[in-house]
Amino acid sequence: MARSPVTYETKDGVGVITVDNPPLNVVSNEVRDGLMLAIRKAEADPVAKAVVLIGAGRNFAAGADIYELTHPYSGADINDICAALEDLPKPVVAALHGTPVARGLEVALACHYRIAAKDARLGLPEVKVGLLPGGGGTQRLPRLVGAKAALDIIISGDLVPAVKAKTIGLVDEVVDGDILPAAIALAKSKSFLSKHPKTRELSAKIAPDRGSHLFEGRRDELRRRQPFQHAQFRCVDAIESAVHLPFSQGLKRERELFNEALDDDQSKALIHAFFAEREAAKIPGFRTDVRPREIKSVAVVGSGHMGGGIAMAFANAGFPVIVLDRDQAALSRGLAVVAKNYESMVRRGRLDQPGMNKRLSAIRSTVNYKDLADVDLVVEAAFEDIGVKEQVFRDLDRACKKGAIFASNTSTLDIDEIASFTRRPGDVIGTHFFSPANVQRLVEVVRGKETSADVLATAMAVAKKIGKIGVAVGNCDGFAGNRMLEKYVTEAMIILEEGATPAEVDTALTRWGLAMGPFAVFDLTGIDVNWHIRQRRLKQGKPYGSALLDRFYDAGRFGQKTGKGFYRYETGSRAPLPDPEADAIIEAYRREVGPRVKSVSEQEIVKRTIYALVNEGANILDEGVVYRSGDIDTIYINGYGFPAWRGGPMKYAELRGLAEVLSDLDIFHMRFGDRWRPAALLKSLVTARKPKWPR
Predict the structure, then answer these.
(1) Does residue 121 sit in the same domain as residue 90?
(2) Does 109 fall in a domain?
(3) Alpha carbon distances (Å) from 463 to 120, 308, 323, 437, 640
(4) 106 catalytic per annotation
(5) What is the helix (H) or strand (E) element at residue 68, kind and residue range?
(6) What CATH number did the domain enclosing 14 receive?
(7) Among residues 444, 461, 477, which one ends one of the domains?
(8) Can you list the pairs that 501-505 forms with residues at least 24 positions away whose Cβ atoms lie under 8 Å?
(9) Shared domain check, 249 and 101
(10) What CATH code is carried by the domain that includes residue 531?
(11) Do 582 and 597 fall into the same domain?
(12) From CA 187, how far away is CA 332, in angstroms rounded?
């Protein structure tokens, strides 16, 4: 007989129910059944005058098993468990440690009393995967902390520190030390009372909000800040029902809203994104004996925007960092920017002064490669030119110790060619950070043909240590992210040639959910930067953008850095404004090449740009550049501003239907020619009637 993940025992006259479902004590089907059985034992136990509910190991209890949420189960329902806890005639104390979240916290809300370890953090983060609490959380939490605080907690999905939880009424006591003895003591002290508070019967905290404008005000705020996301609005509806309806009706309304959310494409997309990010850390086929190398010290070559950000990322994680640049003047400029960034963090309350001082003291500078002789890892962030890379890697090869890893931050160049500049190609790898590197979470980890397994394992491990999401990709022009992006920006430029304006393209895509449209991004990253990429691509016989980009470059319109690009910018502002000069450049170019159409619909703009990503993503997946379609989605959500609630380009295609996507691609192929040739993988999947990308 299988061991139950829930045990019951009596300690000092108190029944102790322990959830032991490692590693996080997820409230699975088996845990729910075990809880119901343990509650019955506690009620029938004549020795136990009170009850404590606790989790084994490092956590009280976490949420439900997401897989189980989508599959019917005939066992104990979470609402029945919570009702059984509330209805126990003996006092029930939840002993909260670790991160009691989601279903775990919902169970605790049904206990009569809650005591938390000082370092515990509590929350209902279901909204982050497109859901809302579905076990009474939207009904009980407002009754404990008030509707406004409940809205803040549930809509944000953020965790609440134990001390704050006590302040707002979420927990009754906070203890610094062993939680179980303190919980037993609290339970015994309450055992003499004839009645214990049932959260579902409380009303004092919600009564003031009946008839108020709180909920409509919060909906207005969501329409401004998160207009696309459905789950947040459902959370407001559910909490509003707690204020205005009897508990049983509110609970019914919560379940209705939860089921709606579960069936919504947004939750499917967000759940996919959640698991895809975790899967990205796994390298299929890795030998079990492969171990990462030990990295104790790091060097960064280049102190510019990227180099400085990379140095900050390592210093923030506690690594000593040496920054090397060609001369002291460049180093002084770069490190001054680093110091300014830290000062900004202190001003905004994200870092204290001692923390800033510690990080700055971890970064030292040099102009001499000999000072890198003993470092374990070097990240090169020099100018994106193969000649510059060659000189840097030859110098590193001469200066650094055997076993040091050389990582290039190149965004498009050939890692194998870069590795060939050294006598140790197995120690060379790509680590494509995204800008700003101290903020953006993504790192594309690029494996060359000779990159050793332990170097790949080390790069992935280091990415995790510095708080990044490492995604392993193969070596090709542009790797995964930028290779797909080139198709996207090229199509956007062609749409511009056909008659759309930059604002029309950008508006269509931001209304669809992107953080920025392609022409605002051109202006942000620099039209000159993109022009240089275009020139290199043209020499390789590969399309990138269009000749219209050359006109903007020739006019000195480089984007925000010059105050004018596809848009114009007021001094000190990043807000894009219409510019008749830009319109004139576009119109003159159209007259030369001859516009093919006068306008492009918003729907077609979205399809042609997003499906350009999807189609190239399918080619990348088919070629083995990435291990999984979810790796592409993780890259695009975390590196390119793709909305997580769309799931990433590949998941979006699944949700639309691969057959529908292929049908549109076939139409585009007939209209526009070979650049829209459907990917062989997509065609084969549709022919085989397979609705999902290979995993």
Answers:
(1) yes
(2) yes
(3) 26, 17, 18, 12, 18
(4) yes
(5) helix 66-69
(6) 3.90.226.10
(7) 477
(8) 501/583, 501/586, 502/566, 502/567, 502/582, 502/586, 503/567, 503/576, 503/578, 504/600, 504/602, 504/605, 505/605, 505/609
(9) yes
(10) 1.10.1040.50
(11) yes
(12) 61
Same domain, 148 and 255: yes
63: pLDDT strictly greater than 70: yes
Q: Are residues 450 and 336 in the same domain?
A: yes
Task: Say whether both 437 and 364 belong to one domain.
Answer: yes
Q: From 244, 266, 288, give the residue that closes a domain.
A: 266
- Can you give the residue range of the structural domain that contains 85? 6-266
Q: What is the pLDDT of residue 540?
A: 82
Give the C-alpha separation, 5 to 68, whole Å.
16
Nearest to 378 by CA among 454, 457, 451, 324: 324
DSSP 514: -
Least confident of 16-25, 40-49, 59-68, 230-239: 59-68
- Separation between Cα atoms, residue 530 and residue 549, nearest integer Å: 8
Distance CA(645)–CA(267), nearest Å, equals 7
Does any domain span residue 635?
no
Given the residues 106, 444, 491, 654, the one annotated as active site:
106
Do 579 and 563 touch, CB atoms closer than 8 A? Answer: no
Inside any domain, residue 644: no
Widest CA span in the chain: 92
Query: How many folded domains does the chain comprise?
Result: 3
pLDDT tens digits, one per residue of 412-462 = 899 999 999 999 999 999 999 998 999 999 999 999 999 999 999 999 999
399/438 same-domain check: yes
**What is the rounded CA–CA span in Å between residue 93 and residue 281?**
38
pLDDT tens digits for 171-194?
Answer: 999 999 999 999 999 999 999 999
The phi and psi torsions of 75 (rounded to 5 degrees) equal -80, -160
- Residue 416 sits in a domain whose CATH number is 3.40.50.720
Residue from 126, 254, 380, 654 carrying the catalytic annotation: 126
Are 118 and 100 contained in the same domain? yes
The whole-number pLDDT of residue 532 equals 87
In angstroms, the CA 145 to CA 143 distance is: 6
346 C-beta neighbours (distance < 10 Å), count: 14
Catalytic (active site) residue 126: yes
Q: How many CB atoms lie within 10 A of CB 665?
A: 23
| Sign, CA torsion 383/372/299/561 | negative
pLDDT band at 596 (very low <50, low <70, confident <90, very high): low
Token pair of 39 as six digits: 């509650």
> Considering the entire predicted model, what is its pTM?
0.94
